[in-house]
């Protein structure tokens, strides 16, 4: 028994060096060559960092495309989902409220135009994406508020949208921050 | 829609393409045959030397279990204290606090037992030091513990009669050097180049496009996320696990993480057959497991794609399916696949919030964890399945009126008693635990704990009951996923699930190893016309029936009170 205890302690010490020092340092070294040098890829506008490519942020102003509802208000140092169950009456009321509010800001919409992702909270609370349909319903509002041609905005959405992985696998997405930065750059 | 189903199909196919050769490789590694990774031998010799281990020393099954338990207890003690005092240790750029004793107790057990149930949140509850030196360390070694235990079990059936079952330390070290570490390295680099952070810098701050100040948690996550999946651990670097965009940046990484968590469990099944020179038995086991997986997967994906009927009534379009708690870049289809895989395999990482999935999806998730052997966790999946096999052997023996045998060894009262005890343990822990927590919610709602029982549940009614049932089931299965709405960071949940975690891990390892050790030491009986062959279709069906009947009898009442009742109220 005593032999096993000593062996266990020594083996633990050796493995701590191998697995917790050497391994992550090798990964950190390799990651230094990735986009963002291992600290996460940043998005800049006019040379200023305005966010991370993968981290969704809150958009509430009418001249921007809006992201999904977030249970944590896009707090990027405290991710979280709503964890509301599908039959929870308070939750269902909340969803109904989101639909009404979307209809208020987009009076040209029918209920059936609204895709589910625009009225439900994401898993992380930091979802950077919306569905292609979710972007499409906002085009008219954004164009009006920016005094742009509707077609021009729709084209930009199309240009920034990402298709399925390799064109074959998974859903298409629109990265809201990427789209809004492109929109801001369009003006000039 | 079709691209989403293609994605599932391609992901599973790639899993098999990697897992089957990996199984062949593992059988050779543990049999000591020549493999291409033998260039790592000097490193292993170095590890043995520094640890004072002689890898040629033979152990019997009891010595194996002693070694296993000893090193696991060393980790428990080490981790408990480091977690409590992490605030006073270096590598804490975000200035996070130390853990309370009950939280440290729960967290350390949870990671030692390969469960990774997390009652803390990755961004605020741990430091970079503890994330790497406790959590990630244990993700490696707990997976290696499971694999080494499975190899001991393989060893018992390799030769006709044997009590010398190899050396525990050798199996354990090789699981790391020949399997977990190289694969993790490759995967971590893939993740790093897909956007997962690797640097040790702390939180960042920026001004968002519309002018809000935002703090972003980061940290060296890529190395962690790799072993978290390969070792079927599942604990997240960030609070929302693999739903977090830095932990799982794209559809591509999502598939990588999905493949990573399934390859070793499948490879272990394949390795079993090759190792004991009965390949057909492996394929039969693999077949039963795969059919079981499909029976859970198909209704799960269909219920998620169908969307929430209550939201459908509001008139919005759920073309893509149910989106609450899900990420747009994955979509409901592969999130459904993930939820099946992560519950049958004891990973317990999530890419969508299970609390918000449809009631029937919750039903299948719970059932997957209760059965816990359709592929199952790293190494332990095979051990769990073995218990069902022994019960099936016993029942078949009774049906034909012969002394039951398994692989040429008589199965007698002692072995059956152990198998029966292990079978009863899970329902006992899950149901008694859930009953106790329900009792407290009803009768002691105002108990003065960190989270009062009246605020435990995030959802009313049947779904609230499901939250408690899920927590206990996940703990017993060493799964680690949760209906995360549950307010679980308080003394009741930390302590009760701590015990469930511990018992649910070690007894189902020791039980099967004991049975295998006892059987392996018995005289070998050559096959005759009257032998019950374990590798036939009939016997496989028998095993499948045993799995379904045992679990249905144990859990159906509880499942009815939770997800099924919610389902029927939702569709009315």
TrEMBL record, chain A:
It is a single-pass membrane protein. GO terms for cellular component: plasma membrane. It holds the Pfam family KdpC. Keywords: ATP-binding, Cell membrane, Ion transport, Membrane, Nucleotide-binding, Potassium, Potassium transport, Transmembrane, Transmembrane helix, Transport. The keyword Transmembrane applies. It is found in: Cell membrane. It comes from the Bacteria. One of its GO terms (molecular function) is ATP binding. The system is composed of three essential subunits: KdpA, KdpB and KdpC. Part of the high-affinity ATP-driven potassium transport (or Kdp) system, which catalyzes the hydrolysis of ATP coupled with the electrogenic transport of potassium into the cytoplasm. This subunit acts as a catalytic chaperone that increases the ATP-binding affinity of the ATP-hydrolyzing subunit KdpB by the formation of a transient KdpB/KdpC/ATP ternary complex. Belongs to the KdpC family. This is Potassium-transporting ATPase KdpC subunit. It comes from Pedobacter cryoconitis. The lineage of its organism: Bacteria, Pseudomonadati, Bacteroidota, Sphingobacteriia, Sphingobacteriales.
From TrEMBL, chain B:
The gene is kdpA. Pfam families: KdpA (PF03814). One of its GO terms (cellular component) is plasma membrane. Belongs to the KdpA family. It comes from the Bacteria. Keywords: Cell membrane, Ion transport, Membrane, Potassium, Potassium transport, Transmembrane, Transmembrane helix, Transport. Part of the high-affinity ATP-driven potassium transport (or Kdp) system, which catalyzes the hydrolysis of ATP coupled with the electrogenic transport of potassium into the cytoplasm. This subunit binds the extracellular potassium ions and delivers the ions to the membrane domain of KdpB through an intramembrane tunnel. HAMAP family: KdpA (MF_00275). This is Potassium-transporting ATPase potassium-binding subunit. GO terms for molecular function: P-type potassium transmembrane transporter activity; potassium ion binding. It is a multi-pass membrane protein.
